[in-house]
Amino acid sequence: MRQRVLDAARDLTCEAGWDQVSLSAVAARAEVSRPSVYKEFGNRAGLGRALVVVETQQFLAGVTDAFYPGVPDPHDCLRAAILHVLEEADGQPLIRAVIEAARKGSDSLLPYLTARADPVFDAGRALVQGWLAARYPQQQTESVELAADVIVRMTISHLILPSDEPHLTARRVATAALRLLQ
Q: Which residues mediate DNA binding here (predicted)?
């Protein structure tokens, strides 16, 4: 039942944007009762959070593949992972729907991607921080944490407000972040 509800919520969000998604519509699409949706997710915000958590886990699996085993040069490996994020986000219907709505100035699901520490920032930062720590074992933890934070924040910022071609953005973000570790 949980997966049917999440699938229905994702489909409705992709079709009309999160602002237009109601728990009643999700329940109807998933062919479950509205009280069942409330019991499972608590409220609309709980459903939104669960939806973002699932999408984040799937999305970061692809980033992990870009990092590991990775190419020998850390800059090239990081650039490839950032480029993966920038290009893959456009191919993910839910992420694309949230970003397009944000660019138009409206979408209440956007805070899960940009402002709330969890699940996107924490999961992304943990992934990047682990990779940096493995690649730069001599660095202090604070430097690795700062670089990971910069990478995640800059990458998400460029998703919402792209400034250049993805490959150029990926190179610039990787270069700027790795300079923090020099």
A: 22-41
